Each structure stands twice: as structure tokens, then as C-alpha cells.
Amino acid sequence: MKKQKLFLDAQKKQLVKNYDLQQKEDQVNQKVVVKLFNPTGLGTWYLTELNEVDNVAYGLSCLQEKEFGYVDLNELTAFKGQFGLGVERDSSFPMNKKTLEECKQLN
Which residues of the chain carry a pLDDT beneath 50? Predict the structure, then answer.
């Protein structure tokens, strides 16, 4: 079985573009590009931008609490939950349709 990539090429391109634009003034109203989740437990991440140099993304992390901030994608990629399953991309989540604030209300 082929492992799913965390991002499609178009998603990665948009995440990097958002980072390069430095839209820091109003991060909670940026459009979410991709949703990642732990298929066997706690953890959902809605990401808006990606610093390709250090592989750190910005977005909303929903773990015990919901908080805006940065997440190291190297850590997410290395994570293995129950049954050895890693973090996955929600392939049905619509790119650039919801803001971080809207996603905060989802869970």
C-alpha cells in the first residue's frame, strides 16, 4: 500500500506562497489550505502556511485544547499512532474555503 503524502503539490505550493506573502497581520482569517489528522486518536491540524526552509507550518492545532501556532512537520511525519499509522491528509477537505477561525468552530 502506497503511503499518502501530507500535501498535494498544489497544496504545498499554496502553503509556501502564503508564507512568502507574510500575511501575519490577520492569520486567523487566512484560508486553510490543508487539514491533517491522526486517524487513530487525538489530533487535527488546519494549516495555512509553510516555511519550506525549516519545515514548520502555521495553523490551528486541535489536541487537548485548540490553539493557533506553529507545528514542526518533521514531528508530524515521524509520529506513529496506534497500529503504526501516521498523520494523514483529509482528502475531502476543501482547499481555501474556510478560515482558521471557522475551523476552530468545527470540532
Answer: 1
